[in-house]
Amino acid sequence: MAGVDHGDMLRHMEWADARTWRAALAVPALQQDPAMRDRLLHYHITQRAYLQLFRHEPVEIPDPATFPDLTAVCRWARAFYRELPSFLESLDQPGLDRRVEFPWAAEIEARFGTVSPATVAESLVQLALHTAHHRGQVLTKLHESGGSPPLIDYIAWVWFGRPAPDWSGLER
């Protein structure tokens, strides 16, 4: 049985993010909504933090106050997807099997008990699932605000021929 590879999963994630951003930025009432900004910023900060951990870089968390509106968050978030492909291309099986050292592991262990190590491969799955979870929250808020949530299901991406993400016009 053929499985989904990490590249497909993450290409879908970018496609779905671009569609979500396009829909969110089309609703004027959301542009200054701090809850929407914070939700989008949270999942994009997490994406960036994982990439920094994978590359053995210090995790840098930006101050939300530096993002006055959704467009500023989108512009910052987009940079992750410019950097992700080269990281993925550098991965071989030993790279996927490498354990990830999470700086917050001791905090999780203190709160929940023993924490087992996770590999880069497992962390890539977590990254996509975490993003999907919060993207769903964003789309719910979008719907409640009168917007039109796009179809972003993985299977829809497959049905549509695995299209490239469309970021055009979103980073003004």
Count structural domains: 1
Strand order of the largest sheet: 1-2
In angstroms, what separates the terminal alpha carbons?
A: 44 Å
What is the number of E strands?
Answer: 2
What spatial form do the alpha-carbon principal axes imply?
Answer: globular
Helical content (DSSP H or I, runs of 4+): 55-70%
* Structural class assignment: mainly alpha
Q: Examine the secondary-structure arrangement and name the CATH architecture.
A: Up-down Bundle
Low-confidence stretches: none
Largest sheet entry = 2 strands, antiparallel
The H-and-E topology, N to C, reads as HHHHEHEHH
CATH superfamily: dinb family like domain
By DSSP (H or I, 4+ residues per run), the number of helices equals: 7
Query: Overall mean pLDDT score?
Result: 92
CATH class: Mainly Alpha
Classify the beta-strand content into a percent band: under 5%
CATH topology: Four Helix Bundle (Hemerythrin (Met), subunit A)
Question: Would you write up a description of this structure?
Answer:
The protein is mainly α and about 170 residues long. The chain has a single domain (about 5-160), classed as Four Helix Bundle (Hemerythrin (Met), subunit A) (Up-down Bundle). It contains 7 helices and 2 strands, in the order ααααβαβαα. The chain has helices at about 5-25, 35-55, 70-90, 95, 105-110, 120-145, 155-160, and strands at about 100, 120. The chain has a two-stranded antiparallel sheet. Helix 1 runs antiparallel to helix 3 (about 70-90). It is globular.
